[in-house]
Amino acid sequence: MIKVGNMRKLKKIALLGGTGNLGKGLAMRLAIAGYDVIVGSRKLEKAKEKAKNYSNEAGVQISAATNSDAAIESDIAIFTIPWEFAFETARTLKSQLKNKIVVSPLVPMRKTNSFFTYLTLPEGSAAQKMARILPESIIISAFHSIPAVKFADLSAEFDWDIPVCGDDEMAKREVINLINSINGLRGLDAGPLSMSSAIEQLTPLILNISLRNNQRNLGVKFL
Ligand SMILES: NC(=O)c1ccc[n+]([C@@H]2O[C@H](COP(=O)([O-])OP(=O)(O)OC[C@H]3O[C@@H](n4cnc5c(N)ncnc54)[C@H](OP(=O)(O)O)[C@@H]3O)[C@@H](O)[C@H]2O)c1
What we know:
Layout: E1 12-16, H1 21-32, E2 36-41, H2 44-58, E3 63-66, H3 67-73, E4 76-79, H4 83-92, E5 101-104, E6 109-112, E7 115-118, H5 126-133, E8 138-141, H6 148-151, E9 160-166, H7 169-180, E10 185-189, H8 196-200, H9 202-212
Parallel strand pairs: 1-2, 1-4, 2-3, 4-5, 5-8, 9-10
Antiparallel strand pairs: 6-7, 8-9
Helix pairs in contact: 1-2, 4-5
This protein binds NADP nicotinamide-adenine-dinucleotide phosphate (NAP).
NADP nicotinamide-adenine-dinucleotide phosphate binds at residues 17, 19-23, 41-43, 46, 80-83, 85-86, 89, 105-107, 143-144, 146-148.
């Protein structure tokens, strides 16, 4: 029996574009941790199909909605959409995301010849651009350094740190708690949102190290 005093107040999490690589692992692992997870998509049917598959695989209930309805329902929304398209999606969800915690795992980068480069946006970082687009939401930057395919494999073991940036200390703590609820992850406060480019740049760094050293699924650990 669960003792009421030990129960955490768990939040509703929307995964916008949760039908893709990063969304799959987050959906299953956050639902296993006890969160109420909604997989969002541009198409309701696609969200339903993916949520059903994730629920079956993880043995937990995961719900589905359009991105708009998922955003409305959620306390915390995570943009698991490729960075090129996430900003446009954010513009359409301004009112749905008002006063909510919005998590940006976005990494603006491209592959040039045989290596990845980070693209510095005029706003400073993808998370800072999100903050400009969604001034009435609380933007937190996190999850950039997760290798999505391994993360979505429920039999995989890992021990990774997830640096988190944001200007609202309570919201940042909320997201760190959410990260810490997933086995094998440790959320670490990496400073204000103006530091987000430093943690977004971890992804091209990891990918270049992976490519050049014949490694796969590398994460980061601060020891
Ligand atoms: N993959 C990784 O290892 C990894 C790791 C860390 C961070 N990230 C970041 O996480 C984000 C998601 O990466 P991902 O690899 O999971 O992406 P993805 O699998 O390529 O795409 C995720 C979802 O985005 C939606 N989407 C695609 N095109 C769209 C458009 N034009 N407008 C709106 N939605 C669109 C699709 O959902 P619907 O068709 O259902 O709408 C798709 O299933 C990226 O910003 C990336 O930088 C990725």
